[in-house]
Amino acid sequence: MPKRVRMVAQIIVDKCTGCRLCEQVCPTVAIGMRPRRADEPGTGRNIAVLEPEACYNAQACVEICPDDAIEMVELDEPFDVGFELPQVDEDAVKTLCRKAGYGRNMQICVCTDTKAGDIATAIIAGAHSPEAVSLATGARTGCVELCMQPILHLLACAGHGDAPRNPKNGFQWYGESATLWQHVQPDGSLPEAIRNAFPEYPLDKEFGDMAKLKRR
Amino acid sequence: MALLSPFMDALRPPAFHRTWNKREPAKVVAKRAADLPGMTALPIRSLMPDLPQTIWSEDALLGPTNLDEVRRQAQVRAEALDWSKIEAGRMVNLIANPHGLQLCGEAYVTMLEVIAEHVKKTRGAKVRLRIAESMGHIENPDWVKIYRLEERFGDVEECPQMGAGTKVDTKLGDMYVTKKLFDAPYFIHTHVTEMREGYLHRMLDRLMKPFGMAYARLESRSAYHFGFGPRTGQIVSRCIFESDFIQQRYVGTMVLDTTSEGVVSVEADNDLKALDRRLAAGIMRNYAMAMKILGEIEDCVVVFDDHGCGVYCYAGGIAFDNMLCADVDFMDLDNLSLLAAERHDSAEPGLTMGKNNAIKAIVVNYMAGGVPQPFLWDNYPIHVVGDTVNRWMLNDPSNYHFDRAKAPVWPTLDEAVEAACRDGGTDNIIVFDRTPGAFRVSRKLGEHLMSRAPHVRDRVENEFLPKWLRQRGLAL
Prior knowledge:
The complex is a heterodimer.
Chain A: E1 3-11, H1 21-25, E2 31-35, E3 46-50, H2 60-64, E4 70-81, H3 90-100, E5 107-109, E6 114-115, H4 116-124, H5 130-137, H6 148-157, H7 192-197, H8 203-215
Antiparallel strand pairs in A: 1-4, 2-3, 5-6
Helix pairs in contact in A: 3-4, 3-6, 4-5, 4-6
Chain B: H1 6-9, H2 25-28, E1 39-43, H3 44-47, H4 68-80, E2 91-96, H5 98-123, E3 126-134, H6 143-146, H7 149-153, E4 156-160, E5 165-170, E6 173-178, E7 186-192, H8 198-201, H9 209-212, H10 218-226, H11 234-242, H12 244-249, E8 250-259, E9 262-269, H13 272-293, E10 300-305, E11 314-315, E12 318-319, H14 320-324, E13 359-366, H15 374-377, E14 382-385, H16 387-394, E15 409-410, H17 413-424, E16 429-432, E17 438-442, H18 443-471
Parallel strand pairs in B: 2-3, 2-7, 3-4, 7-8, 10-13, 10-16, 13-14, 14-15
Antiparallel strand pairs in B: 1-17, 5-6, 8-9, 11-12, 16-17
């Protein structure tokens, strides 16, 4: 569940052009913009500014920066995030996980070892956007490739599928991506149109075998 | 043993590249695992003598290294494709992926050059190169600089999965792709046929896989892992490829068909599904021996010595994921042993990987970061060479759990390997250092694998391949 943050981003002022890309990808909204002072080197009206305690070493900003204006620096004193979650009604956590179709202990964020129950706990405690979930748990601050969909799905199941973007034009996330599971009918089968669309795939068998897997 | 010859021992691993956050592994790694005493190179061809001959290899010991035949075949294929969809003066995104650059280097760039020139010349269109970079530089060396792609192609852009996205309406609902890959009226898909992540694509729509991974945004990549079963994740790729949005822009596909040794041919088709069906049986056949022989290792120490990231470190032309899953037949579509991520409590550690009990310890001489691998740190004793590499591992944003491994840090590679072998009770070593065409192994392990090759070859020909082909409705 937790993450030990050992590095944080550092803005290289003279290289930063204030293009805002870093701000638009940061999963914990740790980056904002401030006006460039007249005595500061570099071009562009704005300069990125980091809120260090909200930087969870995701490094999305480093990757997206077109000007090599961000580097990661090691902290003398690493800090931990996501170790202590608020106490909430455990039945509510289980209910939310069940509604989403995830086991309480199913691993959602592999990078930080965050379980579905931890994400649900954070949501019930008031984290109503992906950014808030990340700040509370540390999840979604590594590769993001694995955890994005289940976090969005848990939020949607809790009634927060319409969280506003932060910043407004950010693209840390869009919406839930379609899954096969969402098409499963009450009797456990898939609609004929879907089965017919992918004849090479063992769709009927998949559900039976997955049920067996779940019971293991 | 004749086939473990000094001739093949001359094969060298590729040099390390400068990487993410200004790291320079070439300056930090004092000794490559290839230089450990008692190591040899076990040629894949000695395991599978009828491996097709290459038209390009990275090393002259394996085959031709000049690019003439790649260029000629790419030209022939380009002339055979129908480009009429492309209108003069309009923009075409030529989409590349880092795996092609990793494995096939200049051969892949040559294929891209031929396509770009042909389309510009015959259609009067503008062509720009777009590289689907997945996790970006944390995972990949800076291929644009390494292959001087801006100089050679002009307009070049690397497009990581975290970049802005575009919503695509598919048969199953909304999915998301990387905007910059598809922001032109047309695009051309390119690929290589290597055996990476076979446990994910299961050789179903294999050549479409980038549409569900490298070309997809985080949301849909995540859904691939979490919203589908162990044999159906590739439906994401199919859905995106078959969407109106993609079909309106799609022109054609050209791929390098590869083996462990390099490129065996250039293939192309406007019909991606037909191309996939045409090549699938050959891909499975050409990689089957390299994959299945790894299952014959009874005990060993694995050394990572590559600019890939753990499961994507390569040996003999295949990724470590094949070794990690070597004790199961993940090409068998009846096999549920992998991708147990969805809909079960994680009593089993790791997201997709089981534990290969033959791996007694892992030594990290160098590897890149970016891909979470708790299934390594939690399941195997880990040894690290040097404080700098250890610090790089600990600082990896996706592998905070590396410190759970409590890996001893050794001043030299020799000491790390010695300790790993001693603690693991084995003197067998296999190195993932990206040497093409051969497994870098300790001599005794090489001899063991050679002795097992006839048995494995028999099983591949008479058991595995027939089953894999039958399950997919394919014939050799």
